[in-house]
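so my prof wants the structure for this chain in the tokens format not the other one, which i didnt know existed until like an hour ago. anyway here's the sequence
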Amino acid sequence: VQLVESGGGLVQPGGSLRLSCAASGFTFSNYIMSWYRQAPGKEREWVAAIRSGGSTYYADSVKGRFTISRDNAKNTLSLQMTSLKPEDTAVYYCVKGRDNYFRRNDYDYWGQGTQVTVSS
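here's what i got, hopefully its the right format
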């Protein structure tokens, strides 16, 4: 299993950024996929999840600002982030679930992460 994130960077407050994750080594369409993040000195935080059929779930902190999506034909996961705030600064991880059901903190593979910094 390989999960490779991209798209992180430095953005001003109020700006937007789109993260992508290229997945390989497993049948992508069979599994729920999630984004997690971890800021320095803080615990890992679940951000959003999407089931194979497209059902989505969001943490309250990002609801209405972030949109998770997937392309099962291309084995890719995305996170469109808008109205970014300094508190969104973190390393963002693409995470594979153990099946196609939504359960927080139930995963088996992580990507290496991509840094998102929101600062003026």
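also thought this was worth mentioning. The chain has no helices and eleven strands.
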